[in-house]
Amino acid sequence: MPPRTQRGSGAVRLDTPVKFLKGIGERRAELLDRLRIHTAQDLLWHLPHRYIDASAVTPLVKAEIGQEVACIGRVVAKGVVPTRRGLRIFHAVLRDDSGVLECVWPGQAFLDRSIVVGQTLLVSGPVRFYHGRQMAPREFVILADPDSEPEPLAGGKVLPVYPATEGLSHKIIRGLVDRHLDTLIGLSEDVLPEPVRRSLELPSLQDALRAVHRPASALEAELGRRRLAFDELLDLQLMLIRARAVAKRSRSGVAFTVRRDLTSKLRQALPWQLTDDQQRALREITADMTAPERMHRLLMGDVGTGKTVVALFAMLLAVENDFQAALMAPTELLAEQHAATLERLLAPLSLRPELLLGRQSTGEKQAVRARLAGGQARLAVGTHALMQESVSFQRLGLVVIDEQQRFGVEQRAALIGKGAAPDVLLLTATPIPRSLALTFYGDLDVSTLRHRPPGRGSVRTAVRTGGQRDRVLEFVRSEAASGRQAYVVLPVIEESERADVRAATTMAQSLAARWPELQVGLVHGRLRADERDEVMRRFRAGDLQVLVATTVIEVGIDVPNATIMVIEHPERFGLAQLHQLRGRIGRGEEESFCILMSEGPAGDRLRAFAATQDGFKIAELDLEERGMGDLIGARQSGGFDVRLARLPDDADLLGRARQLAMDLIAADPALQRSENQRLRERALARYPRAVELFRVG
Ligand code: ADP
Ligand code: MG
Known about the structure:
The protein is 38% helix and 18% strand. It has 22 helices and 21 strands. It is of the alpha/beta class. The longest helix has 32 residues, at 218-249. α11 links the parallel β11 (354-356) and β12 (379-382). The chain has a seven-stranded parallel beta sheet, with helices on both faces. The structure holds adenosine-5'-diphosphate and magnesium ion. Magnesium ion (MG) binds at residues 307-308, 402. The site of adenosine-5'-diphosphate has 16 residues, from α9.
């Protein structure tokens, strides 16, 4: 949430519940709740997600074929029409003072539920010829409901469009914000010191808020956004830079020495050579571990680039120094998988990792804990159960955290902020562009694995359309019949979620009926974790040949025999997400196939995706396509509060925010001085769990 500031008295304060504001009341407050607007302050910070520049709106009759336009009109007719190819198209006819225009949304029959006759819509998109002029809107906004008058959009006005919800149109929300705007702005305090603000040429907080809610021009709105984006980036950088400073200061780290007893043995036992990338990463890690400071390093590498082996070398370096090492994974299944891998790789060294999982029996767990506490066990693998208080290590020297993005930024900060703690190596299979690495990993040193080891099976990616589904399925069947395994990925669990989208449950049923000779499994996010793990285990064991799934299979699962992945509705996934999914295949020696079942023509994005396997390149494409907010969506990022900043466009702001944060923290490490107090409070309001970092002492 945005910065809190608890000032103001009288009728309205920033923390006043919205239901007490004029024009709201209980019923609307319930609706606002859905938009996470609970207090007056939340209403003030409910920012427009786009603007309509009314000077750029085209009258319906003037929407010409071949142009890309924005129009406003009232819905006078609508309906769903099936095509011969089985695609369902939603139609709506709009009317304004100048005339009418037909709009079509192929494959979006579900819109029939939200668009009704009498509403006023803003639509924007290309106009083409199809029995007359027709627009296929890329976007639309419901400007007014049937029973309300749309506001006049005359005189080149710039209209903010707010995220809305059923029963609370954008227009109502706009009215509410507008009504309270001046009061709420008056209660807000700008914590950025005036001289700093001026030197950065940013507007004051008050001006910025006014500009985003009530812009006189698109440019003004953009300047306002940049000011608010700067604040976001500054808060994040303050936290990250402080975390780094705390980490560097606590020299409680171990200075390991390179002994080579175990690491050399492992090197000899491996059936292959480490890649250049792996060797470089290992040198960087070794340098950190032999230095007296604690290590806080992120090992970033696409799936299959061989992070696990690198981590294992680091663990052995700790072990040959008479310390223990622990590897933590986000799920039990992944922990088991790692334990199996380590067991295999360590067999020639007569070392065995201990596995600690929540689902083990109490007796088993006790035995493992005893061996860890007593020091008989040198290597441990587990879920975050490993970090619980009941677990103690005799002498823990290194913690490796796999898929670290599944743990939040503040969790990371908290871990780093802990007193006498071991070296930390984080692994992530979500590569991010350089411009972002600094934003999100500003508190860490980063090593990168860019290239995959040679000799791994490659993945061929193809785009196919609905008409070719039978052939694709026949390919899947014949591969499965000859001993391979396949994933079939869908965007939703149940058909009811989106009427026009294929769903996992239905697909699993239909494939099971179609292929009685094959075993078809189903996993999705609504299964309990243990049920999900069970299905995944059966797939890994080869009892299931086909696994129908939602994106829950994204992370970590390693089934080398799975060589086929069919992804339905690929246009509904971000490119980075598609790439994560695709990373589940191509893990064995065999060639693998990823088939994207596209509804329409493939489009540049899917073609670009099919053409490369470089995760960093895809991350750049994804960033361009969706902007940072989505790329590092809250789900993935675990708590970065960055919504207004847009990278790479705002790279200059990021650089300035980072510099300012460094200067502030260099001069006043815990931001205790009175002139920095407010800045600290605001950063902590955004990242409450970072509070430990800013304790004095
Ligand atoms: P990641 O965790 O980065 O996705 P893994 O560590 O699981 O990747 O490695 C992927 C596969 O490549 C594993 O089967 C591993 O044994 C193998 N591998 C790792 N390093 C090399 C290498 N240098 N040469 C050949 N194969 C390797
Ligand atoms: Mg891995």
